[in-house]
């Protein structure tokens, strides 16, 4: 009786896996039309359009250009580019020749830290990728005549520098917001738009 349940479960699991789409993700397209660069989730259309398919699932809606929506003299503009392998590059549009900052998908702890600090609901984001490997505490325990090795991850402290990045969520008025945080001070609200031409 037990093996028939196991076979039925395995058959159901295989059927479920086979029925899921292979490409359940949003594709991003970088379109250049008349010198203006835009990022969109549909293929580029029209004559004289140069298209590049950026195949980056996940936080793809962060790919593109963002500018602050305030009219002050400290106006900022950044471009987020997909590098592949889950990393992104943030380029300051006022200094496009700079190396930029490497970003990755923010962890739940980082999203919670931003949410708690700003008193808004942050749902996803990209934060600075420091490239540091995860640290582990490794210890052994003697069990009879043998030793068993265990490891536990060490929690890394979240600092303002590690929260440097771009985040989206729901503001205090209940509207969708996108925030750019540069590690100190107050994050700026940004909106997605066309990339500047040089």
UniProtKB/TrEMBL annotation:
The secretion signal range is: 1-26
| InterPro entries per record | DUF4124
Record keywords: Signal included?
yes
What are the alphabetically sorted keywords of the record?
Signal
DUF4124 domain mapped to chain residues: 16-55
A Pfam family found in this protein is DUF4124
What is the protein's given name?
A: DUF4124 domain-containing protein
């Amino acid at each position: 009786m037990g093996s028939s349940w196991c076979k039925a479960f395995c058959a159901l699991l295989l059927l479920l896996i086979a029925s899921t789409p292979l490409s359940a993700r949003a594709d991003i397209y970088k379109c250049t039309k008349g010198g203006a660069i835009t990022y969109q989730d549909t293929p580029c259309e029209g004559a004289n359009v140069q298209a590049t398919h950026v195949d980056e699932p996940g936080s793809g809606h962060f790919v593109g250009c963002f500018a602050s929506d305030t009219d002050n003299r400290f106006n900022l503009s950044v471009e987020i580019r997909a590098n592949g392998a889950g990393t992104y590059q943030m380029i300051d549009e006022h200094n496009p020749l700079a190396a930029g900052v490497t970003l990755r998908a923010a962890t739940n702890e980082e999203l919670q830290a931003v949410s708690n600090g700003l008193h808004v609901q942050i749902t996803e984001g990209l934060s600075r990728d420091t490239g540091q490997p995860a640290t582990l505490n490794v210890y052994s325990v003697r069990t009879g005549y043998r030793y068993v090795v265990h490891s536990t991850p060490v929690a890394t402290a979240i600092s303002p520098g590690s929260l440097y990045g771009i985040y989206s969520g729901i503001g205090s008025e209940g509207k969708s917001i996108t925030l750019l945080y540069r590690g100190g001070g107050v994050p700026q609200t940004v909106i997605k738009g066309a990339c500047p031409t040089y």
